[in-house]
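To: structure desk
From: M.T.
Subject: fold request, one chain
Message: Could you run this one when you get a chance? Sequence is below, nothing fancy, just the single chain.
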Amino acid sequence: MPPPLLAILSALLQPVQARAAHDGDADFLARLYASTRADLHSVTAEPAFVAALIAMQQRLQGAGYRRDFPAATYLLLEHQGARCGRIVVDGGPLAMRLVDIALLPECRGQGLGSHILHALQGCAARHALPLTLAVHHANAPARRLYLARGFQSCGGNAVSEQMIWNNAQQLPSSPNLTSA
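Reply: Done. Structure tokens follow.
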């Protein structure tokens, strides 16, 4: 993401802070990724095998993102002094792409996701870019959130639905964050 986009996004995310991840965040990022993979936690196998499978899937996801979105920006999110999630955003000349968003389970349902999307929409609107994303078909809560934030379906495949928010649309109002 070009530096001006990042500066605007960081300002719009307040009171959520965004920063680059560092080596000390590896355990947090592994725990965050594992929290998004209920499908793998339900595998009937030895816990060590499941943990290795989740770690492998996390590495594969990262490699896929680096391949498909080589210029993407990876941001670790903090709220009220604690790490709460991360986003991966690709800012291109024709669109801004939310590649990935993940929040810890205990941070969901407090308005953080809506707040982050509002900030991304504001950033995209300031640069006259649409905001795009993909949502897994099995992730109904995320899909409802995206629809509530003004996203529209624009295609998909067997795994996910492609969605777009066009900056010509009115920016939905800013959500209220609740205290954790």
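Reply (cont.): Helices lie at 3-13, 26-35, 38-41, 47-68, 112-126, 140-148. Let me know if you need anything else for the meeting.
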